[in-house]
TrEMBL record, chains A, B:
Taxonomic superkingdom: Bacteria
Protein source organism: Sinorhizobium medicae (strain WSM419)
InterPro entries, A to Z: HTH_LacI, LacI/GalR-like_sensor, Lambda_DNA-bd_dom_sf, Peripla_BP_I
Membrane spanning residue stretches: none
Protein name listed in UniProt: Regulatory protein LacI
SUPFAM superfamilies documented for this protein: lambda repressor-like DNA-binding domains (SSF47413), Periplasmic binding protein-like I (SSF53822)
GO molecular function, one term: DNA-binding transcription factor activity
The entry's keywords: DNA-binding, Plasmid, Transcription, Transcription regulation
CDD domains from the UniProt entry: HTH_LacI, PBP1_GntR
Domain HTH lacI-type per the UniProt entry, residue ranges: 11-65
SMART domains: HTH_LACI
Pfam families reported for this sequence: LacI, Peripla_BP_3
Length: 334, 334
DNA sequence: GAGATTTTTGGCAGCGCTACCATTTTAGTT
DNA sequence: AACTAAAATGGTAGCGCTGCCAAAAATCTC
């Protein structure tokens, strides 16, 4: 196999103009379909573009004009399917409008977030999309100074810097507790992952406890596991919790991944769900609905969040907080 | 809340130079730590940068120099965790080397792939990363003409355009069949998703059938489902298959998502695994190892693929095919 | 201490494009 | 046909940075 390494002089707009026998401006106008030009000119330009294999250079275009049509995502994780879902929702809209998505991953580390946001801004993106409201002072400062739009995703409990799209995790936590109480469960436990890192999970937990308090009840046991959420962590977490706090009749998990782990623990150990123990997750993942007993959970608007976030940015919407709500899935595990 | 909409004149390198009392070149050299400058100059520049809150403009930098330090990913899906995993692997390496990842999603449509690759090239990326070897002629043509590096991911069965990193899906399929045969299963079925779209799954299936033929055996039944893989699709697929082809003793699934669906079907319907029916997946996802009986599967080097792909590009490696292999997980479902 | 090196520095021409403006061409009006 | 309005076009000055080069300053050599 032979690869051509010789410096292929990239075709420029000027060359296209020359080949088409028109001025550079005309080529630019035709290609962006902006301003006026004759059908004849259009044809000659498109013909030359085709013939020379011209690919516009958006780096140059961006520098010359104002907007970069680049949208930066600085997200905590790619392993937690929540974020790919948001990216997916945004991706479609962005693409239709000829925007490009750029991303980096913080691993739930807000210092890293600051570094990454700062690096992103060097590309002069139209907007920066972040998870939630909890950021370092430094992050907020450089973001403000940049003048670019900021969208905080998947959270509405807090103060938005500019735009925010998501739902109230706190209310989701409350709704989960209320549902379990309504079903008659009284000895409730919690299995979660690191709440300091995943502040949205923390808010759900807060909401959950609030609802319990309001009902004159309280958490009968909790197991907080270090690190990110995972099925295995949920499984081990439930095992731990049940050993330490026997007699629970329902457990709330920080999300569906954790809850699935819990479910599998029950399956393996002959714990009847929900007769012996009820399980409640969060996110409403498809897989949770495909297990033998559909998981009781809360369906969150992840794709819709990405979609709306992109739309707001593209339409230059004024600062606002868009609450997309959530939907309780009764399932069969509670 | 008040948002400052006034056109915040972005700080430029020239302003930093003026503030630091040095020339523009010196600022540029200090910031890139490239070329020579005195400690004194360095200090004054960094001080001015800090004071003015200067953020370099990489759009301009890229235009002026050669390389964009942008790596484009054009992937089939974000729902299939395989691709986020690859992105994750690449992301770390890219970030360390001050590269940025840009992506778009084809939804397994090669016409869209061509459009998206073309759009990506407008950003003059250092490399374009694609899934597999199957691309339209048009895609290959514009890629060749662009002169940028191309990495084809997660496949080694075919002809690479430039770099390729992954493993042999065909061999994975063979290994899966050989394992099942070795275990004594004889009436083998297959449940898969759309093979024309996911050509790598198709190659696994081919390899699987080859191994059966070699052993003088043949597939006893198959169910190919339209659309992308999912747990629900696997569940429904296995149900269908068992109705149509009773008496199977093992089923090979196009991937772990599908296999999990199959497992859940068995759980729901009192089919003992593996006594009544053995199940075999592909990818070795964590969740497959967290269900009551760890799923027999093949662990694929997804993160490592992303990592190596990024490294090869950054180190300007010569064209090559890197086979990272795979690992059979015996599990407990076969 | 003069001359030869080496290090540090600033000026400036692009990179490829778009925005703006001035000019030319075409269409419209009476 | 003469004149006006509208449409089409090309020239060119940047966008903010880097790379090159020549000049200036610092260091070394005998």
């Amino acid at each position: 196999m032979v690869i051509d390494f010789k410096q292929r002089t990239t075709v420029t707009l000027a060359e296209v103009a020359a080949a088409a026998g028109v001025g550079e401006s005309t080529v630019s106008r035709v290609l962006r379909n902006h301003g006026s030009f004759s059908p004849k000119a259009r044809e000659r330009v498109l013909d030359a573009v085709e013939r020379l294999g011209y690919v516009p250079n958006r780096i140059a275009g961006t520098l010359a004009s104002a907007g970069s049509r680049l949208v930066a995502f600085v997200i905590p994780s790619l392993t937690n399917i929540v974020f790919p879902d948001v990216l997916r929702g945004a991706g479609g809209v962005l693409e239709e409008n000829h925007y490009q998505a750029v991303f980096s991953v913080t691993d739930y580390d807000s210092e890293r977030e600051e570094t990454l946001v700062s690096a992103m801004l060097a590309w002069r993106p139209t907007a920066v999309m972040l998870a939630g409201f909890e950021h370092t002072e430094g992050t907020l400062k450089i973001l403000r100074a940049s003048g670019c739009r900021v969208v905080e995703l998947l959270d509405t409990d807090g103060t938005a810097a500019d735009l925010a799209v998501g739902f109230s995790n706190r209310q989701a936590g409350r709704a989960s507790a209320e549902f379990l109480l309504r079903r008659g469960y009284r000895r409730l436990g919690y299995v979660g992952h690191d709440l300091d890192l995943d502040t949205r999970a923390g808010k759900r937990f807060t909401g959950f406890c609030e609802a319990l308090n309001l009902a004159g009840s309280r958490l009968a046991g909790r197991e907080i596991r270090a690190g990110a959420s995972s099925v295995e962590s949920g499984r081990a977490g439930l095992k731990q919790l049940l050993e330490r706090a026997p007699g629970l009749d329902a457990v709330y998990f920080s999300n569906d991944d954790m809850a699935l782990g819990g479910y599998f623990h029950c399956l393996s150990n002959g714990i009847a769900v929900p007769a012996d123990l009820a399980l409640f997750g969060h996110n409403g993942l498809d897989i949770g609905q495909a297990i033998p007993q559909p998981l009781a959970s809360i369906r969150t608007p992840r794709v819709a969040t990405g979609k709306l976030a992109a739309e707001l940015v593209i339409n230059e919407a004024p600062p606002q907080v868009a609450d997309l709500g959530f939907e309780l899935i009764e399932g069969a595990t509670a």
